[in-house]
Task: inverse folding
């Protein structure tokens, strides 16, 4: 029997596979395809203090081996999420992680307080890396001092484990990861989407109203692996790897690079049953290679 | 909703840039209702990455097949048209809300261009009740399809812009001046649906419109296919794939 469980910030995940925020809604749609209890954890849609309308369409474009999105954190707001979305997830035996976002440090603090008080989340993922909102978002994730400030503010109001979701749109990830760790983050997850652009040649215009959008999908995997590897060398807290994971092999590569767990993002759009398939594929590879415990692979890259 | 590996049993050109595809999807065919759509994988691997939404044109639950009619407009549908009979693709569906039940004495079905496709299962459902008026329009006769099928379901009239089939002009010009005691079901280009919505509003009759939008996932999680929709005097973004594709005409915002 292969051991798939991993420990993450005091939580035990039955396997290292979680869903990536922004690709999973609040779980309802995927529950039509599989039992969410098959996953190590689910991370739900970025939740803000107030309801957020999101960006005007178009919001999605395809690229070779992936896609770009400019959704802009459309969500019903913390109160609605607590009242109508999170209760649904409680029937599943999996770790529930709520992704939170804000335009100001005060908003991050307030939404963290609300979600914590609801008792419906096992951990918080703090999104300081959304490239699709004007205020906050990415601005907090590209500066170590700002990242530290958000981490400190959220840390002060919640006993739940906090995971800071980091952006690849930086020159050096190490100082940002370290700043989060120093302020009490229990983990970091990366990468959020890569800032990209689509141009509508015939109309000579940017395709997205926001001009810049976030790129994801299998095409970004090598970039994501590099960031995870660098971040894992910079901090001692667990790193959650994401970016273009489509298969069990992809997921295990992230673990070798230093990830304790992985998130499945755009693959959910390619195949709604990707996440449990990836769990099975990981298990199969481990069995074939006679690895008894998946934890043996974490950071075990032979360099 | 179901994700099903489907064998292509027919994929042929039926007009200029218009193709018809038949898929063996026993589970989806059984679950599908008139007005719903499917998401089709347009290749055999990771590229193209996203599936394409296509309205369901024929539902043959007894035979485990559905048919879609699509226009080749870009890379995805271009690749779709090149998939040989016998090949397998992943199909997700049935997606979205079906057409609602008829709630008036008489149904008026209005289709324009590729919007004709998802109206056939509705026309078939309503044909048993009789008394269905069907109006179909296109640029030219070579963009019209399924006319014989529609004619079996009700009283069919056709318009083309170039006059190559039916009456020359817009399909909306065929509509009777008095639409009282009817309910409208329409799918087509936005200008057509806007004209239909205005007509329905003037005569105070119920009107349903099936919208089209670029989609990422088709199941409601990517938030990519939203359109501005009126809700309690406010305008909010709703997902065409989940809250739609069928909306009441009074909810739809055309000025964007």
Result:
């Amino acid at each position: 029997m292969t051991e798939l469980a991993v420990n993450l910030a005091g939580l035990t995940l039955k396997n290292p596979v979680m869903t990536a925020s922004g690709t999973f809604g609040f779980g309802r749609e995927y529950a039509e395809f599989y039992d969410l209890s098959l996953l190590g954890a689910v991370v739900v849609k970025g939740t803000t203090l107030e309801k957020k309308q999101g960006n005007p369409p178009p919001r999605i474009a395809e690229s070779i081996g992936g896609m770009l999105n400019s959704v802009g954190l459309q969500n019903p707001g913390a109160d609605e999420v607590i009242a109508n979305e999170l209760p649904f997830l409680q029937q599943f035996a999996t770790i529930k992680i709520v992704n939170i976002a804000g335009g100001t440090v005060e908003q991050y603090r307030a939404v963290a307080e609300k979600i914590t008080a609801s008792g419906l989340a096992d951990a918080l993922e703090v999104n300081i890396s959304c490239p699709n909102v004007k205020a906050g978002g990415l601005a907090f994730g590209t500066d170590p001092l700002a990242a530290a400030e958000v981490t400190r503010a959220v840390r002060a109001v919640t006993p739940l484990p906090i995971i800071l979701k980091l952006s690849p749109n930086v020159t050096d990830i190490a100082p940002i990861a370290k700043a989060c760790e120093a302020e009490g983050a229990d983990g970091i997850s990366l990468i959020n989407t890569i800032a990209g652009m689509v141009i509508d040649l015939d109309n000579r215009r940017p395709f997205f109203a926001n001009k810049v959008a976030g790129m994801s999908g299998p095409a970004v995997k090598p970039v994501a692996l590099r960031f995870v590897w660098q971040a894992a060398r910079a901090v001692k807290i667990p790193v959650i790897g994401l970016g273009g994971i489509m298969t069990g092999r992809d997921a295990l590569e992230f673990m070798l690079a230093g990830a304790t767990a992985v998130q499945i993002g755009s693959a959910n759009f390619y195949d709604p049953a990707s996440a449990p398939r990836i769990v099975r594929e990981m298990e199969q590879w481990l069995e074939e290679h006679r690895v008894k415990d998946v934890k043996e692979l974490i950071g075990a890259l032979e360099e | 909703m179901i994700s099903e590996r489907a064998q292509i049993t027919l994929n042929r050109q039926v007009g200029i840039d218009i193709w018809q595809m038949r898929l063996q999807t026993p589970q989806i065919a059984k679950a599908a209702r008139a007005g719903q759509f499917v998401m089709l994988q347009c290749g055999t691997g990771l590229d193209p990455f996203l599936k394409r939404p296509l309205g369901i044109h024929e539902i043959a639950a007894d035979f485990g097949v559905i048919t879609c009619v699509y226009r080749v407009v870009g890379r995805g549908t271009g690749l779709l048209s090149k998939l040989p009979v016998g090949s397998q693709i992943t199909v997700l569906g049935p997606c979205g809300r079906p057409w609602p039940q008829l709630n008036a004495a008489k149904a008026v079905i209005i289709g324009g261009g590729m919007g004709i496709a998802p109206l056939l299962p509705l026309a078939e459902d309503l044909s048993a009740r009789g008394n269905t008026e069907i109006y179909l329009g296109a640029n030219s006769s070579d963009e019209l399809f399924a006319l014989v099928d529609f004619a079996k379901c009700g009283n069919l009239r056709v318009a083309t812009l170039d006059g190559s089939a039916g009456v020359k002009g817009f399909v909306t010009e065929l509509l009777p001046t008095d639409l009282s005691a009817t309910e409208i079901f329409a799918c087509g280009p936005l200008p057509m649906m806007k004209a239909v919505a205005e007509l329905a509003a003037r005569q105070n009759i119920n009107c349903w419109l099936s919208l089209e939008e670029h989609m990422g996932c088709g199941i409601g999680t990517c938030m990519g296919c939203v359109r501005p929709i009126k809700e309690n005097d406010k305008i909010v973004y709703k997902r065409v794939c989940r809250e739609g594709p069928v909306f009441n005409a009074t909810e739809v915002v055309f000025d964007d």
Summary: Residues 106 and 155 of chain A are 13 Å apart (CA to CA). The first strand of chain A starts at residue 6 and ends at 8. Chain A has one domain: 6-55+72-194+218-297.
